[in-house]
Amino acid sequence: MGSRRRAAASARRGSRVLSAALRAVLIGALLAACASRQGDTRETAGELREVRIGYFGPDDPDHPVGGSLWQGTLLAVEEANASGGYRGLPFRLVQDWDENPWSGGAAGVARMVYRDEVWALIGGIDGTSTHLAEQVVAKARLALVDPASTDRTVNSANVPWLFSSMPADPALMATLGEALLASPGRASFILASATDHDSRIMAREFLTSVQSGHGVPLRHFEFGRGSHRIPELAKQIAEAGTAAVVVLAGASDSAALVRELRAAGADSVLFGGPAVGRRSFLDAAGGAAEGVRLPLTVWQTEGSEGFGERFEARWSGAPDYAALHAYDSTRLLVAAIRQAGLDRARIRAALEALSPWQGVSGVIRWDEIGRNARGARLGLIRGGGVRPAGPREERPIRTPASASPDSG
């Protein structure tokens, strides 16, 4: 209970900081600019030199969380410009980020919206940063395409300007839960989850999923992000000798725990969240990642292989699922701008109307709150790469949010 009270107090403090930052930045900005910027007369007057798209995330390809998102986004913009841009004008990414989004993130998004006058936004890099950006665009009334979060509560406020291209946690955890309950781990498994926002939400959805099938973990361990307790925790879990262990955390924490579990001699079947499909997890976990099960957020499409080749040629490395979703989010936004013209409200309407849309990650079909309704399928790490787990898992496990491969 102590840890829950501390987490709740921390969330309240973060909310107060965010609200204060938003008030300070947005009040001044709203006095200086119209909250809903419509068509730009400079386009017809020939004064416009570029079409700006905001990017809320780090612009460092080596960033452990946002690196591949930036790579996928930038590649999509480069390709859009190579194919003519917007009526001959180049698209330009305007980037802003703060490693402490509670203090500087909202101000950065507001700067892009009001000072830089972007036409739409792409970002953030997780549930927390997307929540922040959502609050700004709800007031400023321009579209935000979210390529990274799986937290369905991001969309629960029904902000019509927000579109999320990743499948949501309920679909992902239904896939993971069903796979666990169909395995020997059903009767003997441990859940280990991190205490950051996204991991807490995901763990809650996972428990809901397995409990509906009468599955209950023998123990549920929680640990802080970057915790020094991970080696000790891994030893405890290994000594329990359960048939399966489920790890729900970010890529770096998942890699640390998986490595320590294997080093401690754990021979349990390991299940992880989507983060274990990130390139940073595979690099950090090394051989310890072999055999880890995970929910796949992407479907192989005709364009996937060609995208992989172009990505590798541009960045000298293979893309992970985050890069695919960022690429698709950016291409979809570019298509909406080209269709709608330079009008924020029409760009939002075009984003909605373009669904269903075929991307390299699969079909994007918005549900009633702007989240991709696509489901998931079970994946497996083999030979240092992520692949479908087998013939039985080639189709997605159906959830209330997904009815078929085309609709999810």
Secondary structure layout plus pairing:
Blueprint: H1 2-32, H2 41-45, E1 51-56, H3 67-82, E2 91-96, H4 101-115, E3 121-123, H5 127-140, E4 144-146, E5 162-164, H6 169-181, E6 189-194, H7 197-212, E7 219-223, H8 230-240, E8 244-248, H9 251-263, E9 269-272, H10 279-285, E10 293-296, H11 304-315, H12 321-340, H13 344-353, E11 357-359, E12 362-364, E13 377-382, E14 385-388
Parallel strand pairs: 1-2, 1-3, 3-4, 4-5, 6-7, 6-8, 8-9
Antiparallel strand pairs: 10-13, 11-12, 13-14
Describe this protein's structure.
The model is unreliable at 1-21, 23-39 and 392-408 (pLDDT under 50). This protein has two domains: 15-167 and 303-364, Rossmann fold (3-Layer(aba) Sandwich); 170-296 and 375-393, Rossmann fold. A hairpin with a 2-residue loop joins strand 11 and strand 12 (362-364). The longest helix has 31 residues, at 2-32. It is of the alpha/beta class and 408 residues long. The strands form four sheets. Strands 2-1-3-4-5 form a five-stranded parallel sheet, with helices on both faces. Helix 1 (2-32) packs parallel to helix 4 (101-115). The chain is 45% helix and 15% strand. It starts with a helix and ends in a 20-residue tail after the last strand.
Q: What's the arrangement of strands in the largest beta sheet?
A: 2-1-3-4-5
Q: Which oligomerization state do the chains in this entry correspond to? A: single chain
How many distinct helices?
13
Number of strands: 14
Q: What's the end-to-end separation, in Å?
A: 38 Å
Quick take:
This protein is an alpha/beta fold and 408 residues long. Helices cover 45% and strands 15% of the residues.
